[in-house]
Specification:
By secondary structure, the chain is α/β, with parallel strands linked by helices. Helix content is 31%, strand content 26%. It is built from ten helices and twelve strands. A six-stranded parallel beta sheet has the order 1-4-3-2-5-6, with helices on both faces. A hairpin with a 2-residue loop joins strand 9 and strand 10. The radius of gyration is 22 Å and the shape is elongated.
């Protein structure tokens, strides 16, 4: 899959294409439906498919300080899009100047002049242009002038976890913030992932016999509610069952919120400085402060046993 950053990266000889535009944070099942349809339509027309997204999130430019927690960094979104068969991903730097483009100018500047859109695939709530004034109706209206078709794909409706709401990044963020990683996985179609570099912490886990990878998460990452979770730690391409702790470590009066993962039954791992991924499978229990270190060790042993069972490592 080709990856472009900015309109100037698009090849000069780029021909017609099928395009879909959106933040696509998380590339959840609703997104997958839209992107999948764009890929299918591109193949029907014999042209490449392109996903257009933005960096930073538009809300951070329009309303500074309002950047939502991110479900996936751009490199992860690109990986997921490539798995869906997308031919090219375009990340548009979202600046104050760019935010002032009228819907018509956005269509001409991006879809017509650069991507030569043959078809545009969107969800029903797609908005674009200055003050989000453009919608799918306006997009279709200008399609008659600029020779592209518009297809609207309805979003899925989530199950019990979302109370019947359409699949959305907003709902997914809410579930993650509540610690409902299983509900989030239902929407994402996979476990929620947190990434970052392993850094040195207080090393108390090592002292207790459960050495953990202290993950310095990427900016704006959506981190689950404080507690213990079962999941996986992936490093150097190896996926290992893990017991994951999120929180401030109240047992030792900590104040900094961290994400730490213990690779179950692995001895001698040296992960410092590596970029790793932590996938959250299931919530095990909330964060607690115990009466003694012995009580803490008993709880950790029970946590690891539960996580071993949940991940199938037993």
């Amino acid at each position: 899959m080709q990856r472009w950053r900015g309109l100037e990266d698009i090849p000069q000889d780029w021909g017609r294409s099928v395009v879909t535009i959106g933040s696509y944070d998380g590339v959840h099942r609703g997104h997958q439906l839209i992107i999948g349809r764009a890929v299918a339509r591109a193949r029907e027309l014999g042209v490449p498919s392109v996903v257009v997204t933005f960096d930073p999130h538009p809300s951070e430019v329009v309303r500074p300080g309002s950047h939502p927690p991110l479900l996936a960094p751009h490199h992860r979104r690109a990986e997921l899009m490539a798995e869906l068969g997308v031919d090219a991903a375009l990340i548009l730097p979202f600046t104050t100047e760019f935010s002032k483009l009228s819907p018509a100018d956005f269509i001409v500047k991006v879809l017509v002049d650069k991507l030569h859109a043959r078809a545009v695939i969107e969800g029903p709530n797609f908005r674009f242009g200055h003050k989000a004034a453009g919608n799918v109706g306006f997009l279709a209206e200008l399609g008659t002038t600029y020779d592209y078709e518009v297809e609207v794909v309805d979003l899925y409706v989530s199950g019990a976890a979302g109370g019947g709401e359409p699949f959305s990044s907003t709902l997914t963020r809410r579930l993650i913030a509540e610690g409902d990683v299983e509900g989030a996985a239902e929407i994402l179609g996979r476990p929620h992932r947190v990434e970052g570099v392993v850094v040195r912490g207080a090393q108390r886990g090592r002292e207790l016999g459960y050495p953990t990878a202290n993950v310095e998460t990427l900016p704006h990452t959506a981190i689950p509610a404080d507690g213990v979770y079962a999941g996986w730690l992936t490093a150097d391409g190896e996926r290992m069952p893990a017991a994951i702790s999120v929180g401030t470590n109240p047992q030792f009066d900590g104040t900094e919120r961290t994400v730490e993962a213990y690779a179950i039954d692995r001895v001698g791992l040296d992960l410092y400085g590596l970029h790793v991924a932590v996938d959250f499978l299931a919530y095990v229990r909330g964060q607690e402060k115990f009466d003694s270190i012995d009580a803490l060790l008993d709880a950790i042993a029970a946590d690891v046993k539960k996580c071993r069972e949940l991940t199938g490592a037993a």
